[in-house]
């Protein structure tokens, strides 16, 4: 039974615990209680409030001593069976069979945390039990195969006899190290913290991971995974006495205090410049592919006020559009993209300034510009208005407490660890830091911020300047050297050694092939279908009008905030205009207006709002997948009391932005920065890219998406950036004509999320700007949909029989393999059973065959209402083997057998995914999206009933849905150049991802 309290006297703390202190946490309307378990030494922070989305987290300080990834591998493997729950993968069983709102584990540079969350009391207790047993009593001590599967192991190719290395973490980190960002992060930390755990890659360096022995891995767990080294958080509306009693009796009382010796040493200041390289593909140009960074260590994490001030300075100096240091570097042409970071999840945070897409010989100039600009700012003073607006914006975000799909308690807990890990007295400081905003405002104009710049950025002796240069085929060279090393090792093995290696491989294979016993599965805590509510979340759409424009009001308790969307219907645009709308979305709000420069414009928006953003929304009709609405959307949020100051900024952005030669320089900067961002995103999100490209062969929706954010758009932006002088006149003409034609009242539909108490005030303030929107023509016939349908028809007409396979080579060492198709095209209707199928495939069939056996880091299925579907792998060492797994799904489903309990598990997992609690903003967005797609409550109720009542027979019926998707015969792979070329005969087209 849940029971939140407001005063410590409302609860009896069990005698097994010492009450250290309590603290009222006004900002989150909670009581903080800090306890220590007397016998085991465990630390517990309880946050009692009315939040039904309860969070439990147990964290351990886990400073690594080498880059073998032992902390990361232990994180994976404790969740592979335990004393109470000996089945092979309790984590996945709970993922597919619980109502969790969060279930994961994370390895940081100095800690590993295990958070879970649920709104259901019974489920929350089940999740706590499984996680506690996993961390304290894992099966890793008795089953070496767990280490080999998740960490690393040798494989002997049965046909060639070639020796290879495989393992989930090994492949995950090969994928991570394909990103120059990851390489830069590790090399900089190695230089900044040479005598500290922070100079070590806790996730694991692929070159070093195979040095980890089973014995050292077990010893790491034994040393650090003890209650004396634990930090336990409980957040939300839960029964305090009952949970404390459970923790003591079931786990903590089994342990006596120890000294885990997990303190983090302070790194003495070091200073150096150095260079390293990262891999690019043979086909890529090395020009403007260098990364430069200026890195300083900035005090300690427990000085939260200073760290908060540095976060503000980082935004004002570096991240805000027009920020002076960023602007100086861009104007000097130092890089395509200038960014910054402040790494706070460590005892000694570091502040970094990054230049992406530059040349190594500009390193000295890069440093000189940074330091000269900072000296000038110190002499003249930091812009006081920009500091004020940054503080206002930060406070808005802090008090809004919008964690998106994540539980609020999760983010509160993660923040708590950033101080509590290093100081037992600083448990709740960051959960109740609202008073700091007024204190920071009081520091403006006093010289405080200027002194911070001098101390931490200019006169800091703990500094590293790093240059990361491109090297063609570095990954391929690594793979070649690894192959030679393995061949040499293979040749050194005796027949007895080889027999032992084969025996281990066979044991691992047998472990992976053999399902958990029925007896072991029975031990896992479960829910029943009776634990599921049949009710849907209601849609909150109240149709109104504002000055003849349709207004959809979403009546939600928003805590005096208004969330607004002004949507202009652009569905009748021409196909040629689509990409120009993409450019509009990129530049509006980031260029000068007739009233002020872009930097001042952004500062003004942050002074009074939680942000103004533009994007293109695509709404696919619920009953006709080829009927697609496109809206140019302006989103806005602010306190209702501040809206009168913020709303006019929308009009200023839409109708007075200087889309002309006065903005030449700024628009080129934006184009170059966006290009750099797309290049990074394409390589690190290969699963998203491969799926989008695959679906663009048959889906109107996806083809539009590809033209707006895929390779087509990338090539368009690249051409504009490279040929701007010859293209700009046409560009400005197009963009201004779009604004004049489409941003008119006749095309407007308004979405407003606000509580009833504040609706009239919000609508009144909104009316003042709606009346200023110009009149124009109504939306005409949807030319774009027809044009794109013709493109798709042409693709299908020219498509050969058999599989259409496209390969896109990237600089990484792993693959992202996607198959896609549409079941509606095969005459199959959407059904709620597909939600259950998604759980079955993602957490059972694909998990076992692509991740567990194949070694990929991730794999999943996705089924949309419009029929668009895909199967994708993530950081996958395989290629055609994964496609074969996809092909075998139909047979798997045709022969699927499961009892009621097993099917119920998949149903509960599907319901859990569907029932994630919504923030006020998300509640309004969900309702408006349903309205635009013509999805009503009856439709949602029908899908939920189908989902809740799914049977094994229903899941067997899904074989024809999967067959329909696979029968589209489209496969797209983003992957390593070597692997794709090795399989060149399997592809119809092979090209460089970024050519």
Automatic annotation (TrEMBL):
Domain Peptidase M16C associated: residue ranges: 468-720
Highest taxon of source: Bacteria
A Pfam family recorded for this sequence: M16C_assoc
Annotated GO biological process: protein processing
Gene Ontology terms, MF aspect: metal ion binding; metalloendopeptidase activity
Gene3D superfamilies hit by this protein: Metalloenzyme, LuxS/M16 peptidase-like
Family named by the database record: Belongs to the peptidase M16 family.
UniProt protein name: Peptidase M16 inactive domain protein
Organism: Catonella morbi ATCC 51271
Lineage, broadest ranks: Bacteria, Bacillati, Bacillota, Clostridia, Lachnospirales
